[in-house]
# Entry
Amino acid sequence: MKTKLSVNINKVATIRNARGGNNPDILKVAKDCEAFGADGITVHPRPDERHIRRADVTALRAILRTEFNIEGYPSKEFLDLVLRVRPAQVTLVPDKPAQLTSDCGWDTVAEQDFLRDIINEISAAGIRSSIFINADIRMAEYAAKAGADRVELYTGPYAHNYARNREEAIAPFFETAKRVKQLGIGLNAGHDLSLENLAYFTDVIPWVDEVSIGHALICDALYMGLEATIAAYQKCLIK
Ligand code: PXP
# Structure
């Protein structure tokens, strides 16, 4: 199975919010991403609504035809939202409310009971759960133990070290990904993936189910246009 591309449209909402109107229209952008070949759409509503707003999440749910993935810290407000909207997948991230962007995974050992309770609620609603973790075998094992359907590997360190030594950069991801496969759960990856580093990641770890990509993809779209950009990212995923 080819790795799926979920386009994170947070950045588009950031541009919209800069002027207070509805330009760019994120519903149109999401539909166009689907038409241009995205396999899914990801959003990360934050408590301060600095990019995606809760109202966007509801509106997107009504129009999307591909897989909708909602990421966030499982506050009561977040859980109420996702249980009402019922996307295909919820990705739990350990972010503090004012955090600029996700910069590490869960401590699935210390947070085991907390995560299990949340995952139970999400699963009972028929939503697939994914837990954001660092490339760490123990964190993957305890994510599985908590009942997660998938883990999402935080690929920031891979992207950061890619240019210096890509074999070294991917090694802990490969080891963790092998364990994830043995555990029988799904594998997602995201953060700082780009046209430079994406193909190698999925060459070495072809069993990645889904990558979610926002920042680099939207930046590339400024030069290449959204349609050509999505095609270029999809090309990296075809093996
Ligand atoms: N995965 C998670 C959990 C994230 O928080 C983000 C950023 O919102 C991404 C993936 C996408 O990262 P990037 O914008 O660097 O592609």
In short: The radius of gyration is 17 Å.
